[in-house]
Amino acid sequence: MKLRLLPKLLLFILLPALLGLCAVSWFSYKSAENALDAQISEDLNLLVASETSQLDSMTGLLRDVLKNAATIARIRNFLKAGSDEEKASLRAGMQQALKSASTDFPLLTDVALIAPDGVVVGHTSAKGIGMNLAERFYFKQSMQGKSAVQNTKSKTTGQITSIISAPVMDGNTVLGVLYATVDLKTLAEETTDSVKIGRTGSCFVYDRTGLLLMHPNKKYIGDEDGKLDWVRQVLEQRDGHLRYIWDGKEKVAYFRTIPGMDWSVLVGVERAEILAPAAALLRGNLVLMLGIGLVVGLIIFFVARNIAGALDEGSRFVARVAEGHFEIDETQRRSLEKSAARSDEIGGLARGVGGMVENLKRLFAESEQKTREAHGGHERGPPGHAGGRGSPQGRRGRAPRGHAGRRRAVGGSGRRAFFRLHPTGGPDRAVRPGRGGIRPAPVRSGHGHERNERHRAGSGQKRRCGLLRLGGNQGKGPGRFRSCGALPAAHSDRA
Length: 495
Fold this sequence. Notes:
By secondary structure, the protein is of the alpha+beta class. It is built from 13 helices and 15 strands.
C-alpha cells in the first residue's frame, strides 16, 4: 500500500516518538519497581527481625519467671510432703506462690502445679484442680527435666493458648511440673498488632505445626494452615522471604523463627501496595506520554499538512504546465504565491518553478511573434512592395522557379529554419534556405517531377500549396502547420 506524504510523516515520526516514550516509561517503571523492592525488602526484613526479637525477649522473660517460680521452697516442699495432713498444711503457701506469679506477670493467666502422676494439685483457678494432664506434651518433656512449650486449646478457657512448663527439681529428682498459660491476646496487642504496614500489611505468628496463634484479624486465630504450600515453605525455611497468593492477591512475606518458643513470626503485605508508588509513576508517565504525543502529533500534523499541501499544489501546477496549460485560476495563483513567499526550501522550489514557467511563457510568446512576423512577410504584395520581387524581402525570400508553393521564412535564436511543403494531392517537397533565396531540394517522387515539368512549361495555372510545416534544424519534433492558400497568377508566371 502506497502512502502519501502526510501519512508517512505521521507514521515515521510520530510512531517512533510514541514508542520511544513508551520505552522510557516502562524503563522508569521497572527501575522504580526494583528500587522499591530493594527498599521494602530491607525495611520488612528489619521489621520482622525487630518483632521477633521483641517476642523472644518477652516470652524468654516469662520462661525465666516460671523457672524461678519452680525453685520456690513452698512449691517444692508441697510436692515433697509425704502425708495428706502435711500437704494440707502446705497447700495455702503453695497456692499463694502460684497466685503471686500470675499477679506479678499479667501475661501468665493460669499458673498450676502438676504432681508426678499428671494430676493438677494446685491452680490459680479452683476449677482447674484435679485435671489429669499426663498425656500433655509439655508434661512429658518437663518430667524429663526439660522446659517445654505447647500450643493448644485450653481445657479451662477453650481458647488457643501457649503453655510453658518447667520441672520442679530437688537436686536431680523431678518432683513435679509447674506450668503457665500465656495470654496470647494481650501479648499480640503489645507486639504484633501494633505493627502497621500500609493498608494491607500485618504481622502474625504460626507455631511449628502451622497453627495460627496471633493475627490482627482475631477470627483467623486458631486456623490450622499447615497444609498450605506457602505455610509449609515458611516452616521448612524458618528464616527468609517468599511471595504467595492470598484471596487472589499477591503478597510478600518476610519471616523469622523464635527458637525458644518454636514460633514463626511473619510480616506480610500486598505486593501491589508495595509497588503503588511505581504504579503511580507509571500512570503519570503514561498520562504525560499521551499529552506529549498529542501535542507532538498535532505539531507534526499541521507542519506536515502545510508541507504536503504546498508540494501537492506545486505538483498539480507542474502537471498542468506539462499538459501545455500556462494559465491558472485565482485559487491556484494565491496558493502558489503563498508558497513562493516562504523562506524555506519549499519557497525556493515554488519560486524556481514560477520563474521556469514565466521563461517558458516568454519563449513561446517570442516564438509566436516571430512566426507571425515571418508569415506576414510571405503574404505581402507584388514586386516593389514589401515582400515583392523588387524589395529586399522579396529578393531574400523569393521562392524558387518552377515551385507553386508560397515562401516562408522563420527566424529566432540564431537558428536556420527548415520548411516542408505539402502540395495538395501530391507528396511532400522539401524546401531549404539557400544563397540568394530558397531553393528546392531534390524530389524523389515521380509525381513531384511531373509537377515540376508542368511549372517549367509556364502554364500559368494557379495551384494550391497545401500545408506548410515549420520544423527544427534537423527536421525533428512537432511543427506548426498553416494553409498557404492560392498563389497569385503573376507570381506563378514568373516561375
